[in-house]
Specification:
The protein is mainly alpha-helical and 571 residues long. Among the domains are: 31-275, no CATH class; 289-338, no CATH class; 479-571, Serine Threonine Protein Phosphatase 5, Tetratricopeptide repeat (Alpha Horseshoe). It contains 28 helices and three strands.
Length: 571
């Protein structure tokens, strides 16, 4: 009876708090962090309530979990796009490891394992009835299959020991509605459970992984990773630049608020290793999808203009799994942007072995050959490849011959290009003629033949108006002809119509700089190098643009640094 006054006081306090918060509403943005903070703060209090639940029948729990899982189980990603092959491969692997681990669970449930192909999902969670989810962000931190087994085992045990089911029952008890009417956001299951339940899932999940033939070191490795995340993202230590781009910091903070200290979790596994005589289980299995993760890192780095890291990540991914056209594509593009034209040409050649009829790829191969120097050698090398390639489509071969003629233009041999011009005039009704004419005009620009370049590019644009690539190339050609006003018109119209394009911004910068408008030029220059830092690579610029462009960029860079230094000195 002594407990009744305390209980009554708590009820009154909660009621008063609710009334006060209704009168003092605070406007705040919703997000995953808010949900996780709420669950992290309230879950510990809920577990102190003197509530004992009767185990939910398995069929009812399975039905509830299936309903909740529909939010995530979908054959397509957001926007209706088909899942990439890498996501399918990863999910198959997660399912395989999960089934090995869950085979040793106590309850005979239909355990199903799912992969969330989102880099900011640095988490795993379980739903009632057998669904287990794990995010790309968490798998990308793993080095061994044993770590994956430990995480999946942990989530299986949240189901096996009724933690997930009891959360549903807790919601039902708090809301005082029939269980079938309880609508629980999936985010509630993404958050942690009580300290005792988390430690229990750690303990029994590690036991499951070991029973499936894995090393308990996998659990230790993951907890050490969590400890590093805590230091880097929660205590605001220095953040690595290449590991967790795009990670949801709020989500991580919520995770750590709702889980036991990693030191406690590590200590528990160490005690188990000693008590269970697992000391000899030190052999860990390699993470078989590591090549997928490194390929994803390479793609992400390339998108963020981190080309050196993209090359390293792609190279390592290809070392683990050589036959990856998508990763080879990223590698070739990153090598080109680093002005490593020799390596880019070699990688493109590897890709052409698989896709010999890819006109754009052949053009990129030719561009890399021409940019590396010795144009006569480049022309012969491309000509030899073209003679040996087996492509039955005569139209494709004709388009590739434009690139061969372009390389001969760089070698100061204009006969092949002149022959193609005559051929295009005779067959002007060819549906691919505008692209071929525009491409040839671009090669004339690189060869320093600006009048021919402008004529061909204008002709191509008559049939393909508002073709961005032709407009940009014509703008640069006009800069080379010192028609700065006309060039500015092209670049400005492009930016207004398409949005900020680094190449158009740099074109406007060079045109304004050469026409003695330094202040405006530096504005465009700043935007261009912010969005595409490769403009500061002099070798790359010299290989692809007129000589005056590299000189103007060097001058603008020096002037910008001079002004920045002056501004710092006057503060």
């Amino acid at each position: 009876m002594k407990c009744w006054p305390i209980f009554t006081g708590l009820i009154l306090l909660i009621t008063a708090s609710l009334v006060w918060t209704e009168k003092k509403r605070v406007v705040s943005s919703a997000g995953p962090g808010a949900v996780l903070y709420f669950v992290a703060d309230t879950e510990r209090e809920l577990t102190r309530l003197p509530v004992a639940f009767t185990a939910m029948p398995d069929d009812e729990e399975i039905k509830m979990g299936d309903e909740l899982a529909r939010r995530y189980v979908n054959p397509t990603d957001q926007g209706g796009k088909k899942r990439p092959l890498s996501a399918t491969v990863t999910e198959d692997y997660v399912r395989e490891v999960g089934e090995q681990v869950s085979a040793h669970a106590r309850r005979n449930l239909p355990y199903r394992f799912h992969y969330i192909d989102q880099p900011w999902v640095v988490n795993a969670f379980a739903l009632p009835g057998g669904h287990v989810f794990i995010g790309k962000g968490l798998i990308s931190l793993m080095d061994s299959e044993d770590e994956l087994a430990a995480v999946l085992g942990h989530e299986v045990e949240h189901i096996d020991y009724y933690h997930a089911a009891e959360r549903v029952q807790t919601e039902q008890a708090l809301r005082k509605v029939p269980l079938v009417l309880v609508a629980i956001p999936v985010e509630v299951f993404e958050a942690g459970y009580s300290k005792d339940e988390e430690l229990e899932a750690d303990r029994e999940g590690t036991r499951l992984a070991v029973a499936a033939g894995y090393s308990p070191l996998g659990a230790l490795r993951m907890f050490e990773t969590y400890e590093r995340l805590y230091r880097e993202y929660v205590t605001k230590a220095e953040t690595p630049q290449e590991e967790l781009a795009g990670v949801a910091i709020d989500t991580l903070q919520g995770y750590f608020r709702s889980h036991p200290l990693t030191s406690e979790r590590i200590a528990q596994v160490h005690r188990m290793i000693t008590a269970e005589n697992w000391g000899a289980l030190t052999s860990e299995r390699p993470l078989r999808i590591a090549y997928v993760l490194w390929g994803e890192k390479a793609r992400r780095a390339h998108e963020q203009h981190q080309y050196e890291y993209a090359v390293r990540a792609a190279t390592y991914s290809l070392k683990l799994q050589p036959d990856q056209p998508g990763v080879l594509e990223v590698l070739a593009r990153a090598q080109f942007m680093l002005a490593d034209f020799e390596a880019a040409a070699a990688t493109d050649r590897r890709l052409l072995e698989r896709k010999p009829a890819d006109v754009d790829l052949a053009g990129r191969y030719a561009s890399a050959l021409g940019a590396r120097g010795d144009p006569a050698k480049a022309a012969r090398e491309f000509q030899e490849w073209l003679a040996a390639v087996k492509v039955p489509d005569a139209g494709v071969i004709a388009e590739m011959k434009v690139d061969a003629a372009g390389l001969w233009l760089l070698a100061e041999n204009s006969k092949p290009a002149a022959g193609i011009e005559q051929e295009l005039k005779r067959h002007h009704d060819n549906p691919r003629a505008p692209e071929m004419v525009g491409n040839l005009g671009s090669w004339y620009y690189r060869a320093g033949r600006y009048d021919q370049a402008a004529s061909l590019l204008r002709s191509a644009m008559e049939q393909r108006p508002q073709e961005t690539a032709f407009e940009i190339q014509l703008g640069w050609t006009l800069v080379a002809q010192r028609s700065y006003g006309s060039a500015l018109g092209w670049f400005t119209e492009l930016v207004l119509r398409v949005g900020s394009l680094p190449e158009a911004e740099m074109g406007a910068a060079v045109a304004k700089w050469e026409s003695r408008q330094p202040d405006d030029a530096l504005v465009h220059f700043g935007v261009a190098i912010r969005d595409e830092p490769v403009w500061l690579n002099g070798r790359w610029v010299k290989a692809l643009y007129a000589p005056d462009v590299a000189e103007s960029i060097a001058e603008m860079r020096a002037e910008r640094e001079r002004r920045q230094k002056k501004d710092r000195a006057t503060r």
